[in-house]
Specification:
heterodimer; A: alpha+beta; 4-stranded antiparallel beta sheet; 11 strands; B: 292 residues; mainly alpha; f41 fragment of flagellin, N-terminal domain; 2 domains; two-stranded antiparallel ribbon; 7 helices; 70% helix; rod-shaped
Chain lengths: 460, 292
């Protein structure tokens, strides 16, 4: 049976355990607003000394209130959410290029060209009307060049951004490897390493925004981090990612392990900013650019063929209105042909040399192209409007994806908060709990002290 | 489920920012009256709008072309009207000249008038409209008739598209109106008449009457053909005007926001936002424990 001395030991344990509890509560309150901070709990347990029942308490350490399953899905949702909003943002920049509702776009400039042909048919010999045709043709070409150049610039920018992103991924991987080594050391030294774990999670979140992250516990307290199905961090060592261009101009992402050859992982990219950059660059921008090229090439070729069939005021036929180059890159290459540039009298309004200068057959035929299926089986305005609709659909799909990802993320955020978040109400209760316990233990100590005094008084 | 501060802040932020976005969009719609501000707002509607706008432009182009061509055609019609009167007057003179009671001095006077008519007629046949010589076919850059009445124009016509796939030749034909291509060379008939009158040959004068009749008919015929062209242009213009109005209406159906709905939506969302702010304040004032 324990005596007063035993009681003092019990109280000592109680005082240190309750103050540990207070300090943990203090940590939680201090970090209530820290993003990603995982709530900690003091783990208290009664302590046996030999076979004696002292019933004292000891602080075993901290428990981080975390749930592996929720955390994993949480990272995943960060990746997918970041990919969705990045994708949406970049697509909006493309949308702006095709926004014919705000100011004049390519569609209106083509309408204006057909309008000029129409005026030409009404007044085929008039120099001013002819000059207007050339000017409208020039506007169409310039606008097409502008859009194509903007698309190309954007593809270059996206590649640059992807390289930067990969650089950040590699830096984060290095940081994670370093933290992993520190965690292993700390755990080896008997520490719970909570603050290091906290830092590791913050890094994982950042990494998740850049690339799809999978975290696997290695069973020894460490983690294996995978990105794009390749191992990024394992056993305290970091591998890297790399970006280059394929011969066809598309972007490739490589896993570059410390040892061994790089392997291409482009098709495994499924989340994070990097995936969104690739998707925007090599799918959306590429397809939009091809559609635009094809549109300009088809319309330009049809106009050329009809123009070449007619006769200029000088009685010469066979001249093109546009220089187009090949179908791929036509939007960027299109110019007013050198044959007619600055030579309005060479515009071919007449259908035969005999009907010069007042003949308008060819001008009418050019007007008619505006309502003929010359662009992939559709009229020019239909073909152009479907390019715009396609871009619009891409943006609105991306918008939908953002909304969906936000909803999923919100739900996971709630789940995560529910498990790991700090509730100030709870902490205030815990604070009172530990405070009261500490006060009571002090009272016990005072009582024991009093008993000793009394005892000593009797003995004296 | 544990409810934490973080959860409250997060959900308040999300709800408020979502509502604020929707409210801003609704306010934009109510403010501008436009439903489709960017392709992504309604991709299908946006494509439809672009097509409709392109069609409206096309209608306006046709109408502009019609207006540009019309002036010269109307001018040609009135010129032909004048010409037919002149030929008709020449025929009257021929009838007079065929009268056997006339003396040679009278016939010379008549011949003088016929010569004037002929000159006047050549002047009319060489009339110049806004785009050049009206009766030279597509040779609009040179006078189609010389002083002898020889024709150097052609019988080609400028064509105009006055609607999808509807082509109209709009050039008045000087060849059909004044030259042998129309049946009778008007100037030659007048020459014969003048010669016959000068020769005081009533028999020969009588011989020109049929030719003059035919000449008159062919000028009138060309005039009425030109009149028909004007009629077609007028009808086409009216049709295009109606079509354009229809298209504009369709555009507004597709692209415009219903003002009443837009306004009530904007109002409802503004109120919702205000309520959400109030509720948020209440939620944030919870947790009295944390304040003691």
């Amino acid at each position: 049976m324990a005596g007063l001395n035993g009681l003092i030991n019990t109280v000592r344990g109680a005082l240190s355990a309750q103050s540990f509890g207070l300090s943990v509560t203090g940590q939680n309150i201090a970090n209530a607003a820290t993003p990603g901070y995982v709530r900690r709990e003091a783990v208290l347990q009664t302590r046996a000394v030999g076979d004696q029942t002292y019933g004292t308490v000891e602080a075993l350490g901290l428990r981080r209130a975390t749930d592996v399953y929720t955390s994993r899905r949480y990272y995943e949702s960060i990746s997918l959410g970041a990919a969705a909003s990045e994708h949406h943002e970049k697509l909006q920049q493309i949308e702006a290029l095709f926004n014919d509702f705000q100011g004049a776009g390519l569609g209106s400039s083509l309408d204006a060209l057909f309008g000029a042909f129409s005026s030409l048919s009404a007044n085929p010999a008039d120099p001013a009307t002819r000059a207007a045709v050339l000017e409208r043709a020039e506007t169409f070409a310039v606008r097409s060049n502008d859009i194509a150049n903007a698309l190309t610039t954007q593809r270059d920018d996206l590649l640059h951004e992807a390289r930067e992103t990969v650089k950040s991924v590699n830096t984060l991987a290095e940081d994670l490897a370093r933290i992993e080594r520190q965690i292993a050391l700390a755990k080896g030294g008997g520490s719970d390493a909570s603050d290091l774990l906290e830092e590791r999670e913050a890094l994982l979140r950042k990494l998740g925004e850049l690339v799809d992250v999978r975290v696997i516990e290695d069973g020894a307290g460490g983690i294996v981090v995978q990105a794009a199905s390749s191992t990024l961090v394992e056993g305290g060592r970091a591998n890297g990612l790399g970006v280059d261009l394929a011969p066809d101009g598309t972007m490739r992402v490589f896993a570059t392990p410390n040892s061994g050859p790089p392997t291409e992982v482009t098709r495994f990219l499924s989340g994070g900013k990097l995936a969104a950059l690739r998707e925007t660059r090599d799918v959306d921008l590429f397809e939009t650019q091809s559609a635009l090229d094809q549109f300009v090439f088809d319309v330009g070729s049809a106009i050329n063929a009809q123009h070449a069939a007619g006769f200029g005021l000088d009685g010469v036929s066979g001249r093109n209105l546009f220089d187009l180059g090949t179908a791929s890159g036509a939007a960027r290459a299109v110019r007013v042909s050198a044959d007619v540039f600055d030579r309005p009298e060479r515009i071919a309004a007449a259908g035969s040399a005999g009907s010069l200068p007042g003949g308008s057959d060819n001008a009418v035929a050019l007007v008619r192209l505006g309502s003929s299926p010359i662009a992939g089986g559709s009229t020019p305005s239909t073909a152009y409007s479907s390019i715009v609709a396609d871009v619009g659909l891409r943006v609105s799909r991306a918008q939908g994806e953002v909304a969906h990802r936000e909803a999923v993320h919100a739900q996971l955020e709630t789940m995560w908060q529910s498990t790991s978040g700090v509730s100030l109400d709870e902490e205030m209760i815990a604070l009172s709990k530990f405070q009261r316990a500490y006060e009571a233990a002090s009272r016990v100590l005072a009582t024991v002290n009093q008993l000793f005094d009394d005892l000593l008084q009797v003995v004296r | 489920m544990r409810v934490t501060e973080g959860m409250r802040y997060h959900s308040i932020t999300r709800v408020l920012s979502g509502l604020a976005t929707r409210q801003a969009q609704a306010a934009q719609r109510a403010l501008t009256g436009e439903r489709v501000g960017a392709p992504a707002d309604d991709p299908i509607g946006a494509a439809q709008l672009l097509r409709l706008r392109s069609s409206v432009t096309e209608m306006n182009d046709y109408r502009r072309a019609i207006a540009a061509a019309r002036g010269d055609v109307e001018f040609a019609e009135s010129t032909l009207a004048e010409a037919s009167q002149l030929v008709s007057r020449a025929r009257e003179l021929a009838v007079q000249g065929a009268n056997t009671t006339l003396v040679s001095a009278d016939r010379r006077a008549l011949a003088q008038e016929v010569a004037t008519i002929r000159e006047e007629l050549i002047r009319l046949a060489n009339a110049k409209g806004s785009r050049g010589y009206v009766f030279g076919g597509t040779r609009i850059d040179a006078a189609p008739f010389d002083d002898d009445g020889a024709f150097s124009g052609n019988d080609e016509s400028q064509v105009l598209e006055i609607g999808r796939g509807v082509r109209v030749p709009v050039s008045p034909s000087g060849a059909l109106a004044f030259t042998a291509a129309g049946g009778e060379d008007v100037f030659q008939v007048l020459d014969s008449l003048r010669a016959a009158l000068e020769a005081n040959d009533d028999e020969a004068v009588r011989g020109t009457l049929d030719g003059l009749e035919a000449a008159h008919d062919q000028v009138v015929k060309e005039r009425s053909r030109v009149g028909l062209v004007i009629g077609r242009l007028t009808v086409a213009d009216t049709t295009l005007e109606h079509l354009g109005a229809d298209l504009e209406k369709q555009m507004s159906d597709v692209g415009s926001a219903d003002p009443f709905r837009a306004y009530s939506e904007a109002t409802a969302l503004t109120q919702a936002l205000e309520r959400a702010v109030t509720v948020s304040q209440q939620i944030l004032s919870l947790g009295s424990l944390s304040r003691t």
